Design the sequence.
């Protein structure tokens, strides 16, 4: 179940669409570094969550083909009730292909990966777009 509170993270439309030359190891390291830099108040709240990197979204994930960058699938912490137990982990998926296709410099790409991870983490925490902006996560 995908949280209906906000749309999934999609690329800004201002960038050229040429593939950057970044390997999967580097891309995954950037995702891991973003997670490692989360503030303690966020880490303390994370519950039953996995973060994965996939090459491309499926047609089901991105039916209009707009280049989905990330996707949160699960039940946000704010939506969980007292009967929430024994559930499969929520998942944050970061899609490498659409990120690379943005044609950003390595520094720009790293910043976009960070923004995607933080945006999807916001879904898990139940944080709205206004609060994401206040936190500098957009």
Sequence:
């Amino acid at each position: 179940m995908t949280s209906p509170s906000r749309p999934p993270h999609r690329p800004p439309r201002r960038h050229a669409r040429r593939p950057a030359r970044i390997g999967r190891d580097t891309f995954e390291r950037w995702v891991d570094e973003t997670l490692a830099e989360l503030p303690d108040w966020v880490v303390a709240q994370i519950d039953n969550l996995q973060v994965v990197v996939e090459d491309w979204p499926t047609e089901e994930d991105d039916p209009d083909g707009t280049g989905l960058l990330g996707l949160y699938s699960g039940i946000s912490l704010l939506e969980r009730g007292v009967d929430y137990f024994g559930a499969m982990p929520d998942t944050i998926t970061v899609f490498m292909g659409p990120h690379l296709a943005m044609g950003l410099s390595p520094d720009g790409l790293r910043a976009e990966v960070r923004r995607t991870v933080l945006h999807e983490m916001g879904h898990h925490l139940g944080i709205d777009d206004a609060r994401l902006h206040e936190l500098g996560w957009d």
Summary: Confidence is low (pLDDT under 50) at residues 1-5. Helices lie at 24-36, 40-43, 96-100, 106-125, 129-135.
